[in-house]
Amino acid sequence: MREDQQRPVHLYNHQRNKFFITTKLFTHTTVYVIIVLLSYTLGYLSHSSPPPPPPPLPPPPSVFQLASLPTQLDNFRVAAHCSNSPLSPYLVFPTILQRVFQGSSPYTDFPPPHLRYILKPKRIRGWGSNGDVFEHLIKRVKPKLIVEVGTFLGASALHMVNVTRKLGLQTQILCLDDFRGWPGFRDRFKDINDINGDVLLLQQFMQNVVYFNATGSILPVPFSTRSGLEKLCEWGIMADLLEIDAGHDFISAWGDINGAYRILKPGGVIFGHDYFTAADNHGVRRAVNLFAQINHLNIRTDGQHWVIDTALVRKF
Ligand SMILES: C[S@@+](CC[C@H](N)C(=O)[O-])C[C@H]1O[C@@H](n2cnc3c(N)ncnc32)[C@H](O)[C@@H]1O
Ligand SMILES: *[C@@H]1O[C@H](CO)[C@@H](O)[C@H](O)[C@H]1NC(C)=O
Ligand SMILES: *[C@@H]1O[C@H](CO)[C@@H](O)[C@H](O)[C@H]1NC(C)=O
């Protein structure tokens, strides 16, 4: 009975194993066949099916679009009116004194009594402002007028005064800056005071110019680079040497370079800071490269500075 009882179980188990093995075999074979069939089918399909239809063509451009296409870049160009007759270098300072300072020197009786104990005798800090590039370019151009776009406390401008003095040149420098710095700059420059929130950057710059006896060589033009460059061009003020070191984002650098180029004397040099430093990725280098490309000009570098010498026109 036991055996009988066991046997069927044994038999049953045996059959079950067989059944399992067969099923397994069957399953493996089926899967194999299916895979082979599928890959054949897919290969056949991918080979013989027609390529996907191309995306629909855009509608043909209108006449208006076609006409304006080549001039799209003009939208970004500075187009304000410039004087047709350049001002003599001797008339530049008198013109600025007249137009910007109502005829009297901003240095007269400077500093006034209420600032005497607020301003430091001298507070100078710049960025690459003592680089060799200044001496290289001043030696080469022997400029009568330099326009600096972005001055801050005057480090680079005063360095340029030093260089021109050493070379015996009668160079005049206009410093275009709104003298606001940038939001947060006083975290790094803690000793520049303010009066009721109005930071004394212009006054500290002037104090530095007075300290270095450079009031005869440097005049501030305390406006935004945009409006300042536009006015200089309108007044016929042309520079032999132009330094760009104001806003370092693409839009600012692009605007400054294009605005400044309009007041550059033929054969003059335009150069600027931060072609290589961390700021270059913020847009200075992209702006300079695009500008040079569009105007067929060569860029060379000198330390961290980019230099475009318009006396050296690119040969094609
Ligand atoms: C890096 S600092 C100039 C440093 C100076 N060239 C030196 O080496 O000593 C930049 C200056 O550009 C000025 N600036 C930035 N954007 C300006 C704008 N749109 N208009 C006028 N000045 C601007 C700031 O006030 C700041 O003083
Ligand atoms: C200018 O040169 C003098 C004399 O060599 C030096 O003492 C002074 O620090 C220089 N000024 C600047 C702003 O580089
Ligand atoms: C500025 O000129 C005064 C008077 O001539 C002189 O005493 C002083 O040393 C000069 N300062 C500089 C920085 O050259």
Quick summary of this structure?
The chain has 316 residues and is α/β, with parallel strands linked by helices. Helix content is 41%, strand content 13%. The chain has a domain at 132-312: 3-Layer(aba) Sandwich (Rossmann fold).
Question: Can you describe what's shown?
Answer:
The chain has 316 residues and is of the alpha/beta class. The chain has a domain at 132-312: Rossmann fold (3-Layer(aba) Sandwich), CATH 3.40.50.150. Helices cover 41% and strands 13% of the residues. It is globular, with a radius of gyration of 37 Å. The chain starts with a helix and ends in a 7-residue tail after the last strand. One 2-acetamido-2-deoxy-beta-D-glucopyranose is lined by residues 212-213.
Which helices and strands occur, and which strands form pairs?
Elements: H1 2-48, H2 63-68, H3 92-101, H4 132-141, E1 145-149, H5 155-166, E2 172-176, E3 194-195, E4 198-199, H6 201-211, E5 218-221, H7 225-234, E6 239-244, H8 250-261, E7 264-272, H9 284-294, E8 300-302, E9 305-309
Parallel strand pairs: 1-2, 1-6, 2-5, 6-7
Antiparallel strand pairs: 3-4, 7-9, 8-9
Helix pairs in contact: 4-5, 7-8, 8-9
The structure holds S-adenosylmethionine and 2-acetamido-2-deoxy-beta-D-glucopyranose (NAG) (2 copies).
